[in-house]
Design brief:
Structural class: alpha/beta
CATH topology of the largest domain: Nucleotidyltransferase, domain 5
CATH architecture of the largest domain: 2-Layer Sandwich
Shape: elongated
Number of helices: 17
Largest sheet: 5 strands, mixed
CATH superfamily of the largest domain: Ribonuclease H-like superfamily/Ribonuclease H
Strand content: 15-25%
Number of domains: 3
Mean pLDDT: 89
Radius of gyration: 31 Å
Distance between the termini: 42 Å
Amino acid sequence: MPHAILYHGFGIRGYRHLKTQFKEGCIYFYLVRKKKRCSFCHSFKVTQKGFKERTLRTLPIGSKKVFIVVKVRRFFCEQCGRRRFEDLLIAERKKHYTRALERYVRELCMVMTLRDVSRHTGLHWATVKAIDRRRLRKNLPSVSCLRRLRYLGIDEVSLKRRHRYLTLVVDLRTGRIVYVGEGRGERSLSPFFKRLRRLKVPLKAVSLDMWRPYAKAIRAHFPHIALVYDAFHILAEYSRMLDALRTQEYTRLKGPMKKIIKGTRFLLLQGQEKLSISAKKKLQTLLRLNRNLFIAYLLKEELRRLWRFQSREEAERFFFDWIRKALHSGIGKLVKLATRLLRHAEGILNYFRYPISTAMVEGINNKIKVIKRKAYGYRDVEYFKLKIYNLHLSRYSLLR
């Protein structure tokens, strides 16, 4: 019976079972290798010159901890003349657990936190982390994976407070994270694009927000690549401007008008089609009484139509007509934003040549936040980066 358990349950081959003991609620299997062989030249002409015992944790049986006690013999080899201990087939060197337990822990780490795995297996959390780290390192993007890149999405994820960020680069065809850089400056991206240039990767387009350091890092290594500025980020920037204008108007005005503006942030930023009848009436009252908010709101709704066009020519005419209206609005904040959008016109209109966006990256960003929240944050930044690289392989139920 023990032989069958060891073979089918723990995958142990090439060992002979000596005995089984039950001590302090744990199960101990005593084993020795079947063949006497030199670990250096693999000759069978050996003489035993002592032994030592190694105790290894392995897979549990139910709630019982299981240990394998291996008799590791020392041989003198008549062929090569060396004295060496025989190889241990079921565990890595200097490890106190079997390969079977390591595989089990790796699988658990794909669906549980380190602390949960540690509690479940009884292993120290540092041991669990070391096992998981080795698993994660094996799945980093390979050179062949990088050479297949064509369309990329770039965004940042907040690491901690005090404005610490990680920059994410995602393959928009597969959804795989291919690079994680610390910070959100030019230096955070340059090593990656330098490597892609060295590998002669035929990139076609990159979707990103209008953050200048990102564009600068890309242009330094791929000067002719198409940059596609993401619609979501452009509209989000417009919403921030509109909210700042609302605050400015609220501060400037007095009396009844001040009360009308108060509490209208949601009405101005939400799409008109999503408002209730009562909310629409309140919004119409506000816009009828405040010229600046009226113009800014109408131009916001008009800008949203830009990405509905089918051809670049139509979109280009519409966009520059919109810019002209915004520049002639006489509203300082709106003029400033329109000037900025005009500087990025090529990247905005590139969408009609390469209809890509950072929506996939935003979705991955949300998954990363779930992992952070589940683990109560990560102090080890390098380990957190490895977790992010392997996100496409994770099976967290919260990520569905």
